[in-house]
Amino acid sequence: MKLDKISLLLLGALTLASCSDIDEQYPEGGNLLADQKQESQDAVPSRMDATLSGMYTMMGAPYAVYGSRSARDDDFGFISAAISLDLEGADATSANNGYNWFSAACAYSTRNPNYANPYMRYTMPYRQIGVANEIINSVDMATAEDVAKYKAAQAYAIRAFDYMSLAPYFQGNYASCKDQPCVPMIKADGDATNNPRATVAEVYDQIISDLNIAIDNLAGYQRTDKAQVNQQVAYGLRARAYLAMGEYAKAAEDAEKAMQGFTPASIADVSVPGFDDIEAGNWIWGIDITDAQVSSSGYATSASWASSFSGDGYAAACGVNMCINNLLYDKIPATDVRKGWWLDENLHSPNWANLTWGGAKGDEIASLILDDGSKVGFPAYTNIKFGMKSGIGSTLNNNDWPLMRVEEMILIQAEGLAKSGNEAKAKQVLEDFVKTYRDPSYSVSASGRSLADEIWFQRRVELWGEGFFVADARRLGKNIVRFHADKESNLSDAFQFNISADDPWLNMRFPQSETDNNKGIVNNTGGSLPEAGQNPGLRDGVTD
After folding, report:
1. What are the helix and strand counts (H, E) for the chain?
2. Surface-to-core class of residue 190, CB atoms within 10 Å of its CB (0-12 exposed, 13-18 middle, 19+ buried)
3. Which pLDDT score is estimated for 70?
4. What local confidence, expressed as pLDDT, does residue 32 receive?
5. Among candidate residues 143, 146, 84, the one with its CA nearest the CA of residue 115
6. N or C: which terminal CB in the chain sees fewer CB atoms within 10 Å?
7. Over pLDDT 90: what percentage of the chain?
8. Is the pLDDT reported for residue 13 higher than 70?
9. How many Å apart are CA 79 and CA 520, to the nearest integer?
10. Is the separation of the CB atoms in 498 and 480 below 8 Å?
11. Full-model pTM
C-alpha cells in the first residue's frame, strides 16, 4: 500500500469528521435498542440457516457498523473492539500519528459519547443480540427437534458473549458493583424508549442463564467449523463469566471441560509469527475471515493493524505497529519463547530469523523500507506475534482471529483453583503449562510475585493483543500502569499516564444517540481525560 493512498483515505475521513481528530465522527442514528431487531432483519435473510450464518459473519466483517461507504478502517466488529481494549490497557501501545485510527483508545478519549470508536464497540454487540434474539424467538426449546435446538443454543451462547462484551466496561467489577447500573438488556415486552440499565448482577444472571441453556442443548452437536459455538465454547464462556463473578471453583471446572481435546501450541509452534489461522490446534473458537470479505476492504482487518507483515496495511506502511510496553517486556525471562513475540530495544528477535521480506532477512526486516510505500521501519518493541496467514508481505489481509484458546482456559483453571483454596494444584497447573509450552526454565515462585499476580502476569504475556487486558484489570481491581517516572518509556509522551483502579473515567459512556432516544439511561459520569504524566507512583503488582 502506498502512503499517498492512505493519505487520501485519511483526508476523506477528516473531511467527514466534525473535528480534526480522526475519531470525532458523530455516530448518527436512532435508538439502537429499538432498531436492533429491524436492523438485524435487514442485515441477513429471515430463514434460520442464513440468520445463523449472518450472526457469525458479522463478528469480524470489515465496515461492520458504519458500512463500506464510510470506509472507517477501524470498523471491523469484535476484532477492532479487542484491539481497542488492549490499546486502552497498559501493555499494548501504538504510534501517536495521523494515521492511527485507534489513537482515541491509546489516549482514552473513548469516553466521549460523540466519538465513533465507542459507538462501534457499543453497537456491535447489540446488533448481534438482535440477530440472536430472532433465532431464539423462533424456536420452542421444549418441543423443537435437535437441529433447531442446536441453532437456538448457539444463539443463546452468542447473546451471552455479547453481554459479556459490554458489561465489564460500563461498570466496575462484580465484587464491588453488582448492585450498580450496568447496561440495558433487550426485552421482548419492554419499552425501548425507556429501558433503564440493568444492574451488573442482573446482566450476569442473564449471561449464566443463557449459557446454561446453551450447554444443556449443545450436547451432541458437531460443528462444521471452529467459527461456530459448540458445547466446549459455551463451557469456556461460562468459565469467563464465573471468573468475573468470583465463582472461582466453578470457573476452574468449566475451563477444564472447555479444554478437553485441545493442546497448547508448542514452543516450536510459537517460535515463529502466527496467531492468524483458525485451524490452529490450540484454538477452541475463532473468527474465520474469508478471502471474499477482504478482497475489496483489506484495511479494516486485524492483518492491517495487528500484524506487522501485511504488504497492504496500516501497521507496516504507516508506522502504527502494535507494540508491547517495555515495562512488561522487561519482565519476561530471556528463556521464555514468548519474549521473541516482540522486537527488543535493538530491533532483534530470534523468532523471525528465517523470515525474508523484500530481500531482507531476520533482523534486517526491521529497518527495511520498501519503495512502494508498503513498509517503513519498525520501532523497538514491535510485535511479531501476529503473522500473515497468506505469507509475509502478502496483500491479502485474511488473518483469522482467536476468540478462545486452550491456553486461556488453562490460565482460568489455574486462577480458579488458586482463589478457591487449592493453591498447590494451581501452581502445578501453571508450572506444567509454562515449563512445557513456553519456558523450560520456568518456576512459579521465581519472580517473587504473589500467585495471583503471577497468574495475571502469565495472562498478560500469553493473551497480549487479544483484548483481555481491560476486563482483567477491572475484575482484579488493578491500576492501569503504563509508565514509571524513573524508567524510560517506549510509549508516546501523550499516552504516558497511569489510571487508578477506582477512577470513574474507566467506565464507558453511552453514545449520545442512545441517551437521546432511550430516556431510561442515566449515563456514566466522573473522572476526566487522562493527562500525560499523571499518577506516576501507581503500581500494579506485575511491572513494579
Report:
1. 22, 6
2. middle
3. 79
4. 55
5. 84
6. C
7. 88
8. no
9. 30
10. yes
11. 0.93
Average pLDDT over residues 163-167: 98
pLDDT value, residue 22? 54
Q: What is the distance between the alpha carbons of residues 349 and 332, in angstroms, rounded to a whole number?
A: 13
Q: How far, in Å, CA of 169 to CA of 167, rounded? A: 6
Contact 343, 380 (CB under 8 A): yes
Specify burial of residue 26 (Cβ count, 10 A radius: 0-12, 13-18, 19+): middle
Q: Which residues pair with 499 in a beta bridge?
A: 480
Question: Helix, strand or coil for residue 130?
Answer: helix
257, 261, 259, 165: which is closest to 215 by C-alpha?
257
Q: How far, in Å, CA of 219 to CA of 442, rounded?
A: 38
536: which DSSP letter? T
Q: What is the DSSP letter of 384?
A: -
pLDDT at 491: 98
Compute the Cα dihedral for 458, 463, 469, 475 and give only its sign. negative
Phi, psi dihedral angles at 434 (to 5 degrees): -70, -45
What is the average per-residue pLDDT within 323-345? 98
Q: What is d(CA 307, CA 450) in angstroms, rounded to the nearest whole number?
A: 33
d(CA 79, CA 278): 14
* Res 378: pLDDT: 98
- The interaxial angle of helices 48-57 and 116-136, nearest 10 deg, is 160
- Residues 424-468 have pLDDT tens digits of 999 999 999 999 999 999 999 999 999 999 999 999 999 999 999
Rg (CA), the chain: 22
Closest by Cα among 252, 279, 295 to 410? 252
Mean pLDDT of 201-211: 98
Q: Report the alpha-carbon distance of residue 185 to residue 431 in Å, rounded.
A: 41
User: What's the pLDDT score for residue 132?
Assistant: 96
pLDDT on residue 69: 77
Strand partners, 360: 357
Q: What is the mean pLDDT of the chain?
A: 92
Query: What gap in Å lies between CA 287 and CA 289, rounded to an integer?
Result: 6
From residue 252, alpha-carbon distances to 160, 235, 329, 343, 449 in Å are: 19, 10, 28, 34, 22
Spatial separation of the C-alpha atoms in residues 280 and 407, rounded to whole Å: 12
Q: Which three cell numbers stand for residue 74?
A: 477501524
Are 363 and 340 a contacting pair, CB within 8 Å?
Answer: no
Specify the amino acid at residue 334.
A
Q: Three-class SS string for 240-302?
A: HHHHHHCCHHHHHHHHHHHCCCCCCCCCCHHHCCECCCCCCCCEEEEECCCHHHHCCCCCCCH
Question: Of 492, 490, 486, 479, which Cα lies nearest the Cα of 542?
Answer: 479
What DSSP character marks residue 374?
S
